[in-house]
Structure formats: structure tokens, C-alpha cells
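Hi R.,

As promised, here are both runs. First protein below:
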Amino acid sequence: MMSYIEYSEEVKEAKRTGKAIVALESTIISHGMPYPQNVKTAREVEDIIRAKGAVPATIAILNGKIKIGLSHEELEYLGQASGVIKASRRDLPYILASKKDGATTVAATMICAELADIPVFVTGGIGGVHRNAEVTMDISADLEELALSNVAVVCAGAKSILDIGLTLEYLETKGVPVLGYKTDSLPAFYTRNSAYDVNYRVNTSLETAEMLKAKWDLGLKGGVVIANPIPEKDALDEKEMDEIIELALKDAEEQGVTGKETTPFLLGKVKELTAGKSLTANIALVKHNAEIGAEIALQYAGLSKVEAL
């Protein structure tokens, strides 16, 4: 298994010295934002984590290797390369065996983070149950992975293009706790609130880390959603976003967009209809998640060190 994994020098050193590491996904670079904004944002997010005293590990598959931590050159390549496969659980064996390039989704990043023994992962928002899923059966592999991989996912809640109520029902069935970081309401990516509550509120990074440790100490397999609302100054208007998302969904239906193309199409349409405001909000929320994720990773690493003494 280890022959498939390559660590950056920075991550290798962090592992050797026991520093806290934070996993980052790569679809946001290859499929989520235009160049050069994607690479600039990726570097800024990594720097936020470093400034907090943790080490970033952006994960991608390059030339048939799972890269845990990317060099500047690799980030630049990923930001501009065409034909990079959007990689989820089902895609990993093919991409590795055929030595192709892949950008990891939430699900694939969780798998790779667990292989690399990195318990905290920062992203924008998780996938979930799509609207009309009772007809289409369109449910993100992210949810199944949250039931399987022992990785905490710091995010701004579920993407607002989804059926948030059904997403929460699915997570409940799989026994995945949904924590609100300083919030009782589940944030909906671009907005700070939704019509739904989180399972439990946590108010500090230490409280969050202690909960993660208790879960995994008990052998309760699977991840945790840590929902961290977008900062108030960057949040978009809830009513306006609902209307825009309805228009985007109608457009997707009329154009026959289905499967793994649905999310990128909808996010692109939302960006267009908000005149770019959604992309600005997306960048702001990822950076905020990086701050909180680094703090949680540091606390979790501290608890693990105490136990080892």
C-alpha cells in the first residue's frame, strides 16, 4: 500500500516531529475555480494553516501516486492541467493503476488522509443528497465515506444546491455526528444558517478535539462533520440564494445534466447568476475553515501526545 503514497518533504518532517497536519482536497483547484485564482487560493489556504502552527497536506494523484502534500510546481501543474480526473472512491484504483492524474473529492481525500494517518481535513462544503434524489438516486459518495473513514471534515455545512434535510437524514442513518462550530443551525455553504439544526454545538477547538478522540477511542468507525459557518461579512443573502439555486436547478434539468457533472454545473451557474459573488464567498469560507481546522488539528495532536506519555 505504501508504494502508492508519496509524502512531501514538509509533511514527512511533520510526521517525524509529531506536528499537527491538516489534509486539503484538490478538486477545488482543478474543477472548482479558474486559473490563476485556484492556485493563489490553494497557497493562501496552506499559508493560513502554517501560520496557525500546523502543516498543510494538499492531496492529489499525480502520475499514479497519491501525493500527500504538493510542491509549488505540482500545485501550479494541477491548477492548469487539462484532463485531470475528478477522483472519488470508485476512481482511485483506475487512476493509480493507469498512472493518470486525479484531483481528490471529499470522499477520496478522506480515504487518502486516513491512509496517511491524518485525522483532520478542511474543505469548502460536503456533498450530499441531491434534490429529487428519490427519483434520480443522486447521492454523493461523500456521505458514505463519512460513515467509513475516521477523518473529521471541517466545512461550511452542506452545499446549498442539495436537499439539506435528506442529507442530514442520511448522515443520521450512518451514525455520523454533525457538529456546529459556535452555531446551532447547520450552515448552508454560502449562508450562515439553514432551516435545520446540527446534532450538537461545540464552542472551542479543544471541545471538538475531545469529542473526536472519544469517538475513535471507542472504536466508533467513521468521520465527523464539523460545520463552521461562513464569516458574517462574507455571507450571501439566504432568500436571494434560494431563488438563484432554483434557477440553476431548472437549467440543469432542461440541459439534461446528471451524475458527477451536476455539482460543477450548478456551482458554475450559481457563480454566473450571482455575478461572481458566490466564488468570493467560497474562497472566504474555505480560508475560515482552514483557520478552525488547524486549531482543531493542533488540539487533537496535543491530546494524542498527552496519551502517549
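And here is the second one, sequence first, then its C-alpha cells:
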Amino acid sequence: MAGRIRFGPQQPEITLRSGENVPLVRLKERAAARAIDLVPAGLVLVLATALMGCLAYASLATGDEYEPYGWLLVPLAIVFVALFLTAAYETWATSATGQTRGKRMKGIHVVRLRDGRKPGVAASFVRAALPAAASLCGLTLIWRASPLIATLVAAALYCLTYLSAFWNRQGRAWHDSLSQTLATTRFAIDH
């Protein structure tokens, strides 16, 4: 079928700007590594979301629609801290070794597109900050209208930055494109 849509990497490897060929990682391996990395932050975010739901329900039950908004800032602060700590960890781990815990467990390395070496601090920060920034935009723009919907939009925007790899021919997500990195199974040049 010529008209069939294919998602993710459509070739087994990519040629870096240095001329070196490196294998691309399948999207299911990247998703598994991401899931491993998000377990600690995910637990915090689920608890914060549950707390928001309880506080919002309390406002409906008591009929006081403005009082709980001060209390809703507590889970919002928790979400901000969780996103910040996740981005800080990913920046540190990726710039230090080219791998987070999840990537190490799945045999994935993050490398620079130009030469296959591990990314520096700036590229690692961009890689980690884009999903967090997208999530925070969703939270802050919709928060006053509906904290619960804002949380769902924030989660969707966070996931969308990673899901963007599905429609990229090289399987590179937006954060990879912006930081000029890619996920491979090995470093092209020893780091």
C-alpha cells in the first residue's frame, strides 16, 4: 500500500553531520525509557492532581467558589517543583553521561546531531526544558478558568512534545530538533 502512513523512524540509522552512521532508537524503546524516568515525578504529579480535585470538590460542596483558590496554589507549586526537578535531573544526567536512568536501562544514548558526542549543558537544558515549558504554559494559561482542565491540558502538552517523534521521519521529537540531538543505541565518538 503506497498511501499507508508510517510513524516514527523510517530508516534504521541516520548519518550525522560528521559523516558517521548511527542507529536510531525505536519509539517504543524511547517511550519505555521515558516512563522509567517519569515514575518519581509522575507519582508527585498524580498526588498533586488528586489534591487539586479534592480542593475543587470541597469548593463545590461548600458553595464558596473563591476560598479554595488560595489552597489550589499548593498543588500548583508542587507541580512547578516536580517539573523543575525533573528538568534539572534530565539536564544534569544527559550532559554528564548522555543518559538518564531510563535511557541507561534501555541502552539509549542522547547524542549531538553534528558529531555523535554527548550533548553539553545548553543542549541538555533545551531538551529537558521544552516539555516542562509546554506543560507550564498549559497550567498558567488556563489555571484561573479551571485548575482541573489546566492540569489535563498541561499533561497533554507535555506528552505532545514527546509524541511529536511519531510523525518525524527520523523519530526525533521537538525537543530533539530544537536541541540538535537524537536518540541512538551508541555514541558515534567516545564521549
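A quick note on the second one: The chain is about 60% helix and 5% strand. Let me know what you think.

Best,
J.
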